[in-house]
Amino acid sequence: AQHAYQEALSLNQSAGNHALSLLVHCYLARLSVTVGRLQDALRILEAARAQAEQHDRHLSFEGGLLAIELSNIYYQHNEMDAAYTMLTSGIEIGKTMASTGVLRAGYAALARWQQARGQVKEVQSLLWQIDQIKQPASVLWIEAEIQAYRLQWEIMQHNETAMEHRLAEQEVEPP
Predict the structure, then answer these.
(1) Which pTM was predicted?
(2) What local confidence, expressed as pLDDT, does residue 87 receive?
């Protein structure tokens, strides 16, 4: 996967397709996180951020996702202020661009951030807001993360009925 993403990145950069190049950076960073290389993910996303600013793409769908992905890395590094700054930036881009995918991803990440601060009501409010955003086309990894977070949240809240309902919606058998 890393080789394929590197090739896609090279091709998009050669073609001057900065939007797809930013998305490929996000996928490369996600891959790095998956294999436990947070520093590599941070380096990839910081380079993408510089590229986005250079090509005036930071206020785009891709720029919004990039901000949220970067906030997730800061969160994992326990840099909560930096995570919040990037989160609010990504959410504002989502609002400006009317991007349901960016907003849903941003609100899910903000819910995790609020949960880390012990803000139960804020988490519940953000999960409700996610439900209110109608998604015309689904970004699968965003939706998968939202569903996974909801299940984790409901388990942590000891809400077995809600958890069973979510599992039934996803057609997954409970353990």
Answers:
(1) 0.79
(2) 95
